[in-house]
Design a protein that fits this description.
single chain; alpha+beta; 21 helices; disordered N terminus
Amino acid sequence: MCKHLAIHVPFLIVLMGILASCETESLYEGPLSPEESMKTFQFAENVKTEIFASEPLVIDPVAMQFDGDGNAYVVGMLDAYKPDAVKGKGKIIMLKDNDGDGRADTSTVFADSLREATSVLPWKGGLLVCAAPNIMYFKDTDGDGRSDLKEVLFTGFFSKNEEAQITNLRFGVDNWIYANNAGQAGEIGFSRKPDAPRLNIQGADFRFRLDRNAFERSTGPGQFGLAIDDWGHRFFTANSLHIREVVVPLRYLERNPYLPASAKNAIQNISDHDPLMYQLSETPNWRQVRTDRRNKNFQENNLKRVEYARDHFTGASGGTYYDGDKLPTAFYGSIFTGDVAGNLVHRDVLSVVDSMPFMVAKRGGKEKDKEFMATTDSWFRPANFSVGPDGYLYMMDMYRQHIETPMSIPEDLQETMDFDAGDKYGRIYRIVPKNEDSYKAVNPNLTKATSSELVKALVHENGWWNLTAQRLLLERQDKNILPEVIALFAENENPRFRLHALYVLEGMDALDAATVKTAMKDPSPGVRENAAILSERFPSCLPQLTEMINDASVRVAFQAALSLGQFEDDTAVIALAQALELHGQSSWFRTAVLSSEAGSSIDLIKILVKNSFFKDPVPWKLKFFETCAHIIGARNDNSEVFDLVSILARPSLSNATKFQSAGIEGLVKGLEKSQGLGDGLGQKLKTIESGADSNLTKIIQRLNAE
């Protein structure tokens, strides 16, 4: 019997392996060639795809940027979802289309042995690279196409999860470089300022300027996908929340250390159609089984939760603003986002809403019940996008059987999955109009252009040219072209181009109050909004900034309210009170006012008393007053606290018990936060707050007289 068993054990092992292999193959489909995969693409609009590059030239592409000469630099994240033992296989390659037919012919390794590299950005003849925990600078100094210079610029970023690390480098129209950090913890150091204190980045994203050696926290948390529109508004992607917008830059919220967390709203989900998407591919087995298990657990524990295995955003990735000039004009200003789990590309059309300081993202007219692009090919993983110097939209497809991190999948389901399946694949597609004939190559050669030629490139219809020219002018600092830039700002009819000129002047330290004042009266709301930001540098702009509170554009008025808080002047306090009267029903405007010391001061309260603000105790006024009192209490300045109590005791508030209650409640909370509740005034206020005496006015008046 034992002998018989010994003979058959090897056979049984082989048989079990075959059966396991068959089971895996039956659960998950195999790969398609690039040409076969393209045939499965279904577009809602009149466009098509062309292959720009595919394996073996490119593998696991997650980002692509074009340098000033039109060379495409691609991040290949070959170590994605790999154990630590095999990390460090990432590459940056340079793709070149030598014959101009629109398809890459050569692939040169610019840098390799990178750990979880996710993003690149051209800078001063080299590349800035995100590879947590670092942001680095690489440069080829000998012309062989391979980097031979490496500098670690910033370090200290979170590096434990490739889906939530520093990424998405973007050069903004304001001359800052932005990056998503997913709100992860980190103490950031800058090699060019080694004596500077480390920056705590937890809860925030990141921005920096290498021309001024500046770096700071920025509003987040964005994950993988960062879009910046023509006017500098930021939109970011995060898995199930496919598009959110930054409404309040973090520098405004953090200037007032006493602002309570409840008033620190900074971002907005702007989608009017979340969380649904329209998927064509089959639901993968592991996801369906995991979802069924989770829903069963929810039901057994009487939890009112439901998880969906498909048709809901779960892998939103790579949100990109399209500012090219080759797709139909209706696509300009759209944000394209992939969902790598749903094997599709979603398009958001941004719309201005008169009553809100942010956009609304809507589906395109032909995409109400379908996606811009979807496929039945479950290996298709549209991780990111890029706009090229040719004006087309490029799409990076990692092309993998599985793209989820193993740590989020139960171990028994992992046994049927091959996380390496697809590690030799990668495709980059170009999206073009359906009736497009043969491709026409574009060779910008901007690094070799004169500075005057770069100024002319600021007025190109393709946004890639505008931003690239602006960046190169910033790098060169050739002030001989300032008269040309000034003329462009003064004479050009396109507000986009005027804004680029304005920030070229800013980047060359050639901005003056007169130019900013002109921009503050510009016909374009986008230019006026940016001019309000720039006015913060010039005290002489304050009178004009106060007038912008009445701007016809809510977004401009909102920025004016934020910018007024940068001034320590009675004029600013008066204007902030006016902003509150005009727009106080909006929680965003209340935050804008309260975010500054002037907007949360006792002087502001005194102005509101004179303006009969307390006549009508509507909910938003009560909320504002409570929060303002909270801030005054948290500052714990005795004169301010006593002044506020005096105001609460005034006869003008004798019929406004609700305001008195709100003021006392806010003041007590603030004093508690500052540990200012002792045996004196604070403790007495707390006693009043907790009591139920109907004659609140008399008690406050008596307290005020003590």
